[in-house]
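User: We ran a pulldown and think these components assemble together. Before we commit to crystallization trials, I'd like a predicted model of the whole complex to look at. Sequences follow.
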Amino acid sequence: MPSSESTTFRLNDHGIDVAGLRRRLEDPHCGAVVGFDGVVRDHHGGRAVSELRYEAYAELAEREGQAIVDEARARFAVRRIVAEHRVGLLAIGDVAVYVGVAAAHRDAAFAACRYVIDEIKSRVPIWKHEHYADGAAEWIHPD
Amino acid sequence: MRVHLRYFASLRDAAGVDTEVVEHLGDASSLYADLSARHGFMMPRERVRLAVNGAVVPWTQVLGDGDEVVFLPPVSGG
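Assistant: Here's a predicted model for the assembly, 221 residues in total across the polymer chains.
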C-alpha cells in the first residue's frame, strides 16, 4: 500500500512533539485515537540509567518503519497512523518513540498501535546505548 | 570484489571505524567471519542480520562489486 500523509514513520533528532503528532490524527470519521509514548526510564536490569543515546541506520530505519505503518494500515481497520522515533542523546523522561493511531472503533486502534510498536522494537535498525549512573555505558542487543 | 562496509552500535565500537572498504572473495558469511576475526566481533553470525544496499536480505544473497554491506546486530529501539 502506498504511504500517504496520514500514514508516516519518521526519525526525529530534536524532540518528539506529541501534541503536534496527535493533531495529525484528527479525523471526523474516527471515534478512537490510541497513542503510545515510549519514555526513557531511569533503570534497566537493576542498574540506574542516567541517559541514553539512540543510533539508527537512518536510510533503512525510515524505510522499514514506513513499511511497518503501511502494513498496519492494510491489516487493521484504521485511518491514520503517525510514528516517530528519536535518535541522539535523550534524558530520563524524554519521549523516545511515539505511535498514534486513529480508527473508527477502538479495537482496531489498539491492535494497530500494538502491532506498530512491537514491530518497531523487533525490526527497525535503531540501537540503544545506555549510560549508567556509575559512568559505564553499554549497547543493548536483546536476545 | 570491493565492498563498502558501514558499522553500527557495538560492531562499530569493536571495529573502531564507521566505514571501511574491503576486498573480499566469497559470500557474506565468510566476510563476516573474516571481519569478526580481524575486529574481534563477539556477536555470533546467527544473531546478526545482513543488509545490502539499504535492504535486509538473506545471508545467501550474492555480494557484488561496489555493494554497501551492513551487518545489523539485534536492534533495541522503542
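Chain B has a mean pLDDT of 97. That may be worth checking against your pulldown data before setting up trials.

User: Thanks, that helps.
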